[in-house]
From TrEMBL, chains A, B:
Residues 31-50 bind DNA. It holds the Pfam family TetR_C_24. InterPro entries: Homeodomain-like_sf (IPR009057), HTH-type_TetR-like_transc_reg (IPR050109), HTH_TetR (IPR001647), KstR2_TetR_C (IPR041490), Tet_transcr_reg_TetR-rel_C_sf (IPR036271). Keywords: DNA-binding. Residues 8-68 form the HTH tetR-type domain. This is TetR/AcrR family transcriptional regulator. SUPFAM superfamilies: Homeodomain-like, Tetracyclin repressor-like, C-terminal domain. PANTHER family: HTH-TYPE TRANSCRIPTIONAL REGULATOR RUTR, TRANSCRIPTIONAL REPRESSOR MCE3R.
Length: 200, 200
DNA sequence: TCATCTTGTTAATGAGCGTTAACGTCCTGC
DNA sequence: GCAGGACGTTAACGCTCATTAACAAGATGA
């Protein structure tokens, strides 16, 4: 039994490879044999670890949404009382996630509809809570922003931050730190610009 | 034979419904019978109009990329000599597209991998040209922005503008005009913020 | 030493689905 | 008025693919 120190458990290996493959070719586009092959076992051996292909996707998506929400809440609590700092921390956390787990980010808004009703509802609820967390903070930093506009702005900034999978992999970028800084500035600039509607 | 005035040709009906269904449930997630049913004919009747399911997706994606590029070139030519105006016009055109053809925007960066090699290459080439068009204009407006950063910024703004499908359909938005204006301000604000790296 | 759990394997099953065949019908133009 | 194309229909084929069955082999522990 693989412990904490030596790499990943078989289950975790499978989830990681499945995430990569799902992100590359879509849930329906990848077969169980391929997922098995990616971890060195073949085909139906996966069923010793998961109830089915659907269960892998469900666990991935619920995990993503949960991680985002949990991390967001933690950051909000850490910088509580300082909305500017909370917003910066949320942006930073989301960027880390987008840069470090590109396949998961891709899955996150691409394969949600393939889930069983109950799982989909759960994921949507987690996503909604995450959005609301952002909306609240954004409205504290920019009080002039009405709630519908704030919500739209938050979705737009998510789109901005989640664009990392579309950027060519290696050399065309300013490096990880530079990309993170660029995205951070752009996100804050986008919110700032969204809020100037108060003057009109 | 349906002419320009009365609604859509059968082919166009099919493409429209196929786009909607592909966007909702993914290319592999929707069957030809469903597409047929959506236009009132059933299943294999589609093969009188298209060589196959793949051909529908190919025509949709090539069409999208082509429209975006053509429109972008036209706008660049119309406002030539005034980079600020060109950039605003590009942003406006992209927003119109994102708001009026949400299903197509969704397909655009979701199902590209399901194409035959030749079609995929064509679409990628059109997309690349479109990106380059933006990058050139952005670098004229913000000369301090290095090319890799400009390219990353363009992708990020595409992500921002293409976020419309994630916003709840009707009442939660500030209305079409308001949403368009909001997205426009945010896009410009994001570029502006991207460019302030020169001061650091 | 022997039951048992874990973790695999390969072969079979069965459903879903894209595609083709074979066959009608209506409209059009000579 | 009738040949032929445009446009549909239903039935059948064949392939892919998730899932299950049946079976094996190494570790564990009484």
């Amino acid at each position: 039994m693989a412990t904490r120190t030596d790499a990943l458990t078989r289950r975790e290996q499978i989830l990681k490879e499945a995430a990569r493959l799902f992100a590359e070719r879509g849930f329906h586009g990848v077969g169980v044999d391929e997922i098995g092959a990616a971890v060195g076992i073949s085909g139906p051996g996966l069923y010793r670890h998961f109830a089915g292909k659907d269960a892998m996707l469900a666990e991935l998506l619920v995990g993503i949404s949960g991680q985002l929400l949990t991390g967001g809440k933690r950051r909000a609590a850490e910088a509580a009382g300082n909305p500017e700092a909370v917003l910066d921390s949320l942006v930073e956390g989301h960027i880390d996630f987008a840069l470090d787990d590109r396949p998961l980010i891709t899955l996150h808004d691409r394969e949600l509809d393939r889930l069983r009703d109950s799982d989909r509802k759960l994921v949507r609820q987690l996503q909604r809570q995450y959005v609301e967390l952002w909306v609240e903070v954004v409205r504290e930093v920019y009080p002039d922003l009405a709630e519908p506009a704030a919500r739209a702005a938050v979705h737009a900034v998510f789109g901005l931050l989640n664009s990392t999978p579309h950027m060519g992999r290696p050399g065309s970028l300013p490096g990880r730190a530079g990309t993170a800084a660029l995205l951070h500035r752009m996100a804050r600039g986008a919110f700032e610009a969204a809020a100037v509607s108060a003057s009109a």
